[in-house]
Amino acid sequence: MKTNLGKLILRHRFLWMVLLAHGVIWATVDVFVSPHPDYIDHWAQSRVWSLSYFEHPPMVAWMIRALVTLFGSSEAGLQAGALLVSLGLLALIYGLSVNLFGLNAGKLTLLGLESTAFFQAKSLSIQTEQPLVLFWVAALWALIAYLKTGRSRWMLLVGLLAGLGALSKYTMILFYLSWFTYLLIVPGRRKELLNPWQYAGGLLALAVFLPVLIWNQQHDWISFRFQFSKGEAGPVTMGTSSLNFLLGAVFTYSPLLFGWGLWRMGMVWRREGLRDSPETLLAVMTIVPLAFFTIALVRSEYSDPHWAVLSAVCLLIWLGKDLREQADRGRAGRVGVLIGAALVLNLGLLSLVAVHTYRPFLPLIEAYDPTRQIVGWREAGTETEALLTQSGMRDPEYVVSFFYPLSSQFALHLPSQPLPYSFQREQRNLWVNRADIRGDNTFVVCKVRDCDWVKARMRDRFGWETLTALGTVQPRVWGTPRELVTILRKAE
User: Fold this and answer.
1) 8 Å CB contact between 281 and 143
2) Is the pLDDT of residue 236 over 50?
3) What are phi and psi of 177, to 5 degrees?
4) Could you give the C-alpha distances from 58 to 42, 89, 128, 231, in angstroms and in order?
5) CA distances from 57 to 93, 209, 342, 438 (A)
6) Pairing of strands 442-447, 467-473
7) Cα dihedral across residues 176, 313, 321, 88: positive or negative
């Protein structure tokens, strides 16, 4: 047993070396930055058990609840949990690539993952994409086992894992869309459309997804109505979001490897046709999500390159095999240059963001500058605690803001860790009873430009006629002023 374990560790020493380097680098970065506010928002939701939530299914909150139980409900605990999940996803995707195409293909896939801003920066936070990728890859592993063996029981495992993926993010439906596209376009697989085990797996996935359906039925189908509303837009913006999505995907998942991989995939597909193989399945699972969102966003006002993560994962697994084959045919130099350039380019992009974080120089509108959301909040929490203590409020239970990331940051960085309440998308505050928000247990935070609006909304929602400004907090990061936030409470 010990001998086998030693052989396993030795065989995959490249994986352990990469994971060690990844862990050390991002644990160091954690010392200088705070978790992303979306991550903190999911943490706030995880403090109240629910079958689902307004904007997304419950898996991300459940996962964070388990991690903070292990690592602690603190900034350090959240950062440790995020890094652990990041390392686990890298190992899982590497394992699938090795299982399919061999050790060298797995190494190239792993380096491809490290060449993406997504799999680097996501080491700092957990959002809905991480559990989605976890169960997508696990379900894909089971589905490929079914392709190889033909044993129907694998489809039940696929259904279970796909259901857990749907509890992570609604886009897991694209897994089944991709699979049925594969069955339709590969001649030898069309008979599978009549296989009852396919539908048994689908029913199992639906059964696993029931908590979300039950919760939405109890809340007037609010999540589904919100998701469908994202596609509403006027003709003036037609196509803009689709273009933004594609450009964002390219830069988020490596400008070199994403473009090169799609080109190579097209070349191989044209040469070899639609073979019944894991390679073809990976190609379909790359193209279907990418095409789906590109088309769906034509009339939308909103796009997010993170939605392309499913395509990127499948593409990088496929590309690992293709690059290994090119290296085997004597083109190892070309492969090395491509991977090296992708790694250097990603390092350059991340370095650019790091420099801007501490010495802002890029012409970004303040409201759309993500670097403002991850620095200075520890100091802001300390200063706010002092202001609240001076005003006689100790251990507040709620913090209110207009934009949810602002209240989320204060929720984490105060000792009492109050629950956040935001006016933006007020439906998302369903876990908070508004009657519990009182003058003696609640404070308000606002950016200077938003304070008048927030005061008016506090009067309308909670009857607070007058608010007193306790002061402002504006942490400096390496001498650079960041967010200026006013701290308010109800006038006595």
Assistant:
1) yes
2) no
3) -60, -40
4) 9, 19, 9, 22
5) 23, 9, 34, 30
6) unpaired
7) negative
Q: How many CB atoms lie within 10 A of CB 237?
A: 14
Please report, to the nearest 10 degrees, the dihedral formed by the alpha carbons of residues 205, 206, 211, 217 taken in order. 160
Q: How far is CA 248 from CA 256, 308, 318, in A?
A: 13, 9, 21
| pLDDT on residue 231 | 54
The shares of helix, strand and coil residues in the chain, as percent rounded to the nearest 5, are: 70, 5, 25
Task: Give me the percent of the chain exceeding a pLDDT of 90.
Answer: 65
Amino acid identity for residue 424 in this structure: Q
CA distance 27 to 80: 8
According to DSSP, the residues that pair with 485 across neighbouring strands are 447, 473
88 touches 104 (CB < 8 A): no
- Look at residue 341 and tell me whether its pLDDT is greater than 70: yes
pLDDT band (50, 70, 90) for residue 3: low
Tell me the angle at which helices 129-149 and 153-166 cross, rounded to the nearest 10 degrees: 170
Whose tokens are 């996935």? That residue is: 205
pLDDT for 143: 96
Outline where DSSP puts E strands in 243-382.
none
Residue 222 has pLDDT above 70, yes or no: yes
DSSP state letters, 356-410:
HHHS--S---GGG-GGGGSSSHHHHHHHHHHHHHHTT--S-SEEEESSHHHHHHH
CA angle 49–213–290, rounded 5-degree value? 100
Q: Which of 150, 145, 149, 203 lies closest to 176, judged by CA?
A: 203
Q: Whole-angstrom Cα distance, residue 20 to residue 42?
A: 27
Structure tokens at 334: 């070309």
Task: List, for residues 437-459, the tens digit of each pLDDT value.
Answer: 999 999 999 988 889 999 999 99
Question: Does an H or E element contain 151, and which?
Answer: none
Quote the radius of gyration of the chain (alpha carbons, Å).
Answer: 24
3 state DSSP class of 464: coil
**pLDDT single digits (tens) 133-178:** 999 999 999 999 999 998 989 999 999 999 999 999 999 999 999 9
φ, ψ of residue 214 in degrees (nearest 5): -65, -45
